[in-house]
Amino acid sequence: MPVRHHFVVSRRAALGLLGAGAPLLAQAPAPARAQSPPRLDRVSFVTNWRAQAEHGGFYQAQAAGLYRRAGLEVELRPGGPQVNPAQLLLGGRVDMSMGNGLAALNFVRQDIPFLCVGAVFQKDMQVLLAHPGTGLTGFETLRGRTVLVGAEARATWWPFLREKYGLRDEQVRPYTFSMQPFLADRTLVQQGYLGSEPFTLRAAGVEPDTLLLHDAGFENFGTTINIGARTLASRREVVGRFLDATMEGWDQYLKGAAGGFDTGAANALIRTQNPEMPDDLIAFGTRMMNEAGIVRSGDAAALGIGAMTEERWRRFHAAVAAVGVLPRDLDWRRAFDLSLVNKGIGRA
């Protein structure tokens, strides 16, 4: 960041008598004194996986100088298979972490003083995938089919689908995050992430049929910003600046060149932190977010990127409590704080 100079003019009267009634000499400015640059508030944030397009708004805020303009020095830490963002947050190793709405509700369930202060994704990007032409036209068509589901999903959204659509646990087989079983068996359905597995399948010659989990009524927030209650209380103004700059970064990143914004530097940061993230996969993930309304749908259309409402939280808790994922009597209002969002930033 360039050094800002503050000029202090020393008013020295130079008295020189060149003759009777001679005027005072012109006052000369003292040499400019370089001042220290303004102090930036340090903030650390860990994502939920390796750098990718689905984290693009954070990297845009970094690359475009939005965080520094907000008086922040932000450390973006990528997640990964050996990184547990929630543990880093609970252990005080980071100021904030990326999570989801269900994680924030589980903080309440476990009586842990952490909560959600913003939700970038109005729709979770979890999907179910099937080979084309095999009859996956809606969630009710999952009946009787073998579904590959990971361990976390089996404890969260699978019970919701099972109860709502009359499915059975006997249909489930483990998803190991390898595409080979699915490619070898056209009858299988598997879980995936909208900006990832469909891209891999297309490269393998399969144009999958896709069901977005959100469309089943599983209204989990995605890419949330979670924080400790104590940190929020002591640094609320700093956290507010972080959220504002982040939401502006997401607005720029998703509009991209069509909206007059250069995202090249942000994508370069993503590739630096994750060399396995090529340009075409970044472009695909960005397109999927825009086409599916992952960020700019629901409450965000009126309230801006990052929007949350009490009604949306109430509805989601009721849906997952009805199938036993969470207790019905959970004090779900403790899972979030609405005071730093809903400012209309990037409103569609």
From TrEMBL:
Keywords: Signal
UniProt keyword Signal present: yes
GO biological process: thiamine biosynthetic process
Domain of life from the UniProt record: Bacteria
Annotated SsuA/THI5-like domain residues: 53-254
Gene3D superfamilies referenced in this protein's UniProt entry, alphabetically: Periplasmic binding protein-like II
SUPFAM superfamilies: Periplasmic binding protein-like II
Keyword match DNA repair: no
Protein name (Swiss-Prot/TrEMBL): Hydroxymethylpyrimidine ABC transporter, substrate-binding component
UniProt organism field: uncultured Acetobacteraceae bacterium
